[in-house]
Inverse folding.
């Protein structure tokens, strides 16, 4: 650890930039330790915090500035922050004034240096393993990442050498690790065993070792790197086992881009972060990645394709309608056989097919269908019986699962029918997205659709009792209004834990695949959805650490200010009450008045982030600020009675926001490609959107920002359709407790 003499940093900086001062009063020299910013004799997290505060413009009297210029460039800046971070991570050489170029300066296993090891990979996987190529790929990945992180390349061998210690990639075909689970075991002689399940277990064991011990992160498309780790030891006696709760994991955003089967960068992003579905992502489905556990490309609303009907129609699913059953099974048989001609293997590249309602409530009301609805107390009665019949036909030939969605009014479970073996139900949660699924915080009124989470839990938990394989469709993004991103990121951990605790087997998290996602927290949401889908039981501390790492990656050293805004926006959502995230109005998802009242705070946070972060991050910080200024500005219009024509400050905010929108190519909503003209006399929330029916749901009733229609006033509203047994629901009585044993 080097010692230096303080020479009054400010004086040195002034002398190097101008010669205005003829003399400076002498200052007593103080011996100080580089990195010990508060002169307490230690270099620790307190010094790192002081460094960050200093760089962001916060000066404290107890900070020794001479101890903070760690690389001696005459300035205290982001480079010094990196150096102290690396030092605290174990890179002791960092305080010599250099940023170490290796993430891991020393890697040991049970105290033995990594140079003493070799990787043992069998020449072929044993019988019962799904993808030998994936197993070989895992071995290569382990070798390559250790080389990149440490600088030492291990040999891969097929049988253990006597003069080496070993990292074994082992199989478990007993079922103890299922398909994707793994264990890390360091035995008494220092050998390290990565034991994997039968499909992708070894690969996930390797990837999670790379994350936890080598510090590698893949945050976004084509952006990945190591976080500094310093000295790392895999401890003797390690015995860690993990089996993912959800066997099906998909983040819609990362699958939205149809890659044509060739985008390996997209596939890598998904696979490394534990996403294992190939809906709209064919490159994930290959032997190298252990195939994939996903649906053929239609994962919902498949009836329009199967029956050749319009998206606004529904087929008749009456039990006696053998013609529609034949049409469906024959269509799928032809499609499956076509996949054979593409050399796709059933059960590997093709694992599940869909028979799902179209996106509407226009169910068949013939006498037979109506009688089933009445007997089952739900329109889901017909589709449950239909899916069972399709499964009986298709599964007589192929080991495929039959999938259907519990969607719209069909979220209400049938009380008589049960999905058979091999039938998967995907419950489309349509409750409140402001409150967590497991909380009882929703009002009696609920969201804009009139639904609540306490009511939604009655439906969902009843489905969990009657089916052995339950998926959940999680709506996480506002599809209609890009200026109003859903403030629900902080709910993700609790929501996924609630689903895991109720036996959910798969999650489809529908994020933002639009090009506008960079103008909000959607990239962070994508990443966090992948993390909680892989580990829904992570601690709050782990959850926050993931957020912090991503924000620093995306916004630079000023990420702390961005996180403050994340929490401010979340509070604005909390104040708005219940909402539906995937197509709700901005005034229903945010308390616009609260956003306006915090306009100065919002402005200061974004300006502080830019002042603290390097210039390369400024464009992204600016683009994120657009929606914040827009929401606050709409609140300003409310406060000013609908016009800001006489308010110079708000007009300046409007002009700045509008300029940012133009410069960044911002699109305000899914139906709009051009920005509306500026108008200081009318609120953007009213002027920028047509108030007629955009989505066919409730906008025609909408009377102003933050005002909600009452579903009870419209007999055609979905909240009033098909509620055969739930009309008198209250949060204290679950009718399914007696109806479904």
């Amino acid at each position: 650890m080097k010692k230096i003499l303080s020479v009054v940093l400010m004086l040195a900086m002034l002398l190097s930039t101008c010669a205005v001062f003829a003399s400076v009063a002498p200052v007593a020299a103080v011996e100080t330790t580089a990195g010990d910013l508060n002169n307490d004799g230690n270099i620790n997290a307190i010094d790192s915090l002081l460094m960050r505060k200093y760089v962001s413009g916060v000066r404290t009297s107890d900070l020794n500035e001479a101890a903070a210029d760690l690389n001696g460039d005459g300035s205290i800046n982001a480079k010094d922050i990196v150096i102290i971070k690396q030092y605290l991570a174990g890179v002791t050489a960092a305080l010599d004034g250099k940023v170490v170029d290796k993430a891991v300066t020393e890697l040991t296993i049970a105290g033995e240096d990594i140079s003493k090891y070799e990787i043992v990979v069998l020449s072929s996987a044993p019988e019962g393993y799904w993808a030998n190529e994936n197993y070989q790929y895992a071995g290569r990945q382990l070798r390559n990442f250790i080389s990149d992180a440490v600088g030492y390349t291990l040999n891969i061998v097929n049988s253990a050498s006597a003069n080496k210690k070993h990292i074994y990639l082992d199989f478990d075909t007993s079922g103890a690790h299922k398909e994707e689970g793994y264990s890390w075991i360091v035995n008494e002689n220092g050998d390290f065993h990565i034991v994997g399940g039968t499909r992708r277990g070894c690969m996930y064991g390797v990837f999670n070792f790379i994350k936890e011990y080598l510090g590698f992160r893949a945050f976004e498309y084509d952006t990945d790197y190591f976080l500094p780790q310093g000295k790392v030891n895999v401890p003797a006696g390690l015995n860690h086992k993990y089996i993912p709760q959800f066997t099906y994991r998909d983040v819609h955003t990362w699958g939205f881009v149809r890659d044509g089967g060739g985008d390996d960068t997209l596939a890598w992003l998904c696979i490394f972060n534990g996403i294992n579905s190939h809906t709209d992502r064919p490159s994930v489905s290959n032997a190298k990645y252990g195939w994939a556990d996903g649906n053929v490309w239609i994962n919902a609303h498949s009836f329009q394709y199967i029956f050749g009907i319009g998206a606004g129609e529904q087929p008749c699913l009456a039990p006696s309608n053998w013609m529609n059953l034949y049409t469906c099974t024959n269509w799928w048989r032809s499609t499956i056989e076509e996949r054979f001609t593409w050399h796709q293997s059933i059960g590997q590249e093709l694992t599940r097919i869909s028979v799902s309602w179209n996106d509407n409530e226009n169910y068949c009301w013939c006498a037979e269908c109506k009688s089933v609805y009445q007997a089952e107390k739900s329109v889901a009665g017909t589709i449950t019986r239909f899916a069972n019949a399709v499964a009986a036909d298709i599964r007589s030939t192929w080991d495929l699962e039959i999938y259907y969605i519990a969607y719209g009014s069909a979220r209400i479970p049938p009380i008589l029918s049960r999905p058979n073996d091999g039938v998967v139900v995907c419950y489309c949660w349509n409750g409140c997205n402001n409150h967590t699924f497991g909380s009882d915080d929703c009002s009696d009124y609920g969201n804009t659709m009139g639904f609540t989470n306490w009511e939604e839990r009655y439906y969902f938990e009843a489905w969990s009792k009657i089916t052995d394989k339950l998926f959940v469709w999680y709506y996480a993004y506002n599809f209609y209004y890009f200026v109003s991103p859903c403030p629900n990121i902080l709910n993700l951990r609790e929501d996924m834990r609630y689903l895991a605790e109720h036996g959910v087997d798969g999650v489809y998290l529908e994020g933002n695949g639009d090009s506008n996602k960079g103008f909000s927290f959607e990239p962070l949401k994508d990443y966090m959805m992948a993390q909680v889908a892989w580990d829904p039981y992570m601690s709050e501390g782990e959850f926050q650490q993931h957020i912090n790492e991503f924000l620093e990656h995306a916004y630079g050293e000023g990420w702390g200010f961005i996180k403050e805004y994340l929490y401010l926006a979340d509070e604005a959502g909390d104040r708005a009450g219940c909402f539906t995230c995937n197509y709700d109005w901005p005034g229903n998802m945010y308390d616009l008045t609260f956003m306006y009242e915090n306009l100065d705070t919002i402005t200061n946070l974004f300006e502080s982030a830019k002042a603290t972060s390097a210039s390369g991050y400024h464009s992204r910080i600016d683009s994120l600020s657009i929606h914040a200024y827009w929401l606050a500005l709409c609140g300003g219009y409310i406060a000013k009675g609908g016009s800001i024509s006489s308010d110079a400050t708000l007009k300046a905010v409007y002009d700045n926001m509008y300029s940012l929108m133009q410069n960044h190519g911002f699109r305000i909503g899914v139906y709009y490609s051009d920005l509306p003209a500026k108008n200081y006399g009318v609120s953007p929330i009213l002027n920028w959107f047509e108030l007629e029916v955009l989505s066919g749901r409730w906008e025609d009733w909408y009377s102003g920002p933050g005002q909600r229609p009452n579903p009870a006033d419209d007999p055609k509203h979905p909240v009033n359709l098909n509620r055969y047994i739930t009309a008198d629901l209250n949060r204290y009585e679950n009718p399914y407790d007696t109806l479904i044993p």
DSSP finds 23 helices and 19 strands in the chain. The longest helix spans residues 618-639. The CA atoms of residues 433 and 580 lie 6 Å apart.
